[in-house]
Amino acid sequence: MATLKELRCKAKLTQTELGKRVYEILGKENSGFRTMQQMVSHWETGKGKPRKETLSAMENILGETPDFDKINTETANST
After folding, report:
1. Is residue 16 within 8 Å of residue 36, measured between CB atoms?
2. In the chain, which residues have pLDDT < 70?
3. Could you tell me the pTM of the whole model?
């Protein structure tokens, strides 16, 4: 399995674009570009994990579910 960042880059999406698409699928109001970018950044760096419904939305967008355990392991090892 690939990390969120790997899958996002493979899909040629910015953090903001991925956040916007997730919000669209979930039917949520646009909370601002900065918030969407920060949300995806936190997921990519292991500072937070998305909810189940958000994971499902990401799988629809990216074609597979990101490996968040790999992210957390890499983040822990780099500090």
Report:
1. yes
2. 29-34, 71-79
3. 0.80
